[in-house]
Specification:
CATH superfamily of the largest domain: Formyl transferase, N-terminal domain
Distance between the termini: 32 Å
Strand content: 15-25%
Largest sheet: 8 strands, mixed
Radius of gyration: 17 Å
Number of domains: 2
Helix content: 25-40%
CATH topology of the largest domain: Rossmann fold
Shape: globular
CATH class of the largest domain: Alpha Beta
Strand order of the largest sheet: 3-2-1-4-5-6-7-8
Number of strands: 8
Number of helices: 6
Bound molecules: 5-O-phosphono-beta-D-ribofuranosylamine
Order of helices and strands: EHEHEHEHEHEEHE
Structural class: alpha/beta
Length: 216
């Protein structure tokens, strides 16, 4: 019998393709987490409609009415998460800087996906910056959220090549495909409280790697 599934809240600000990947994974009966809430800080976040259409509870807590009172906005977000019984938060394109209060409240149980091989290219415009820097490998990172932006302990990364004449869009799409593979994989391991072990089958290069075959 499957164990108790961890309750996950996904925070988004936009299209929510990573959220959709998490929902798809969590649809499997043996997935160790269930998405109990998708919350956005923008009413026009496309991911809200996607989640609703799949029957997932959604909430919108727009930040604008709080007029710069970041803490008050976060208290409202936390209330919604608490009301849904959220145990683990997955940030998935949630474009808000978080206060130490919010980070501390969810310490050790808040994940983020970032579109670069951290610690390279924290912050925004990662694909353009990777092209500008001339790196030959780029990718994505799932990490625990700590107070420093994009600085928390790394749980998994997937790397992709940067090809000659790549456009920002082409590179972003190549990385995004890997994001959709590793985020559900990491959440599964995290929710099941097992160290990362499963490979991402479609990844060009993914760490953690599969366990080596046993030597007899
Ligand atoms: C992704 O590239 C993610 O890594 C970054 O924001 C983007 C969100 O895309 N944090 P989506 O909304 O999941 O499609």
């Amino acid at each position: 019998m499957a164990g108790v599934r961890k309750k996950v809240g996904v925070l988004i600000s936009g299209r929510g393709s990573n959220m959709t990947a998490l929902l798809a994974a969590a649809a499997a009966p043996d997935y160790p987490a269930e998405i109990v809430l998708v919350l956005a800080n923008r009413e026009d976040a496309g991911g809200l409609a996607t989640a609703s259409a799949k029957g997932i509870p959604t909430a919108c807590v727009p930040h604008r009415p709080f007029k710069g009172d970041r803490a008050a906005h976060e208290r409202a977000v936390a209330e919604a998460l608490d009301a849904a019984g959220v145990e683990i938060i997955c940030l998935a394109g949630y474009m808000r800087l978080l206060t130490p209060w919010f980070v501390g409240r969810y310490a050790g149980r808040m994940l983020n996906i970032h579109p670069s091989l951290l610690p390279a290219f924290p912050g925004v415009d990662t694909h353009a910056r990777a092209l500008e820097a001339g790196v030959k490998l780029h990718g994505c990172t799932v990490h625990l959220v700590t107070e420093g932006m994009d600085e928390g302990p790394i749980l998994a990364q997937a790397a992709v090549p940067v090809l000659p004449d790549d456009s920002e869009e082409a590179l972003a799409a190549r990385v995004l495909a890997q994001e959709h593979l590793i985020y559900p994989m990491v959440l599964a391991d995290f929710a099941a409280e097992r160290p990362g072990s499963a490979p991402s089958p479609g990844a060009v290069l993914c760490n953690p790697l599969p366990a080596p075959p046993a030597v007899s």
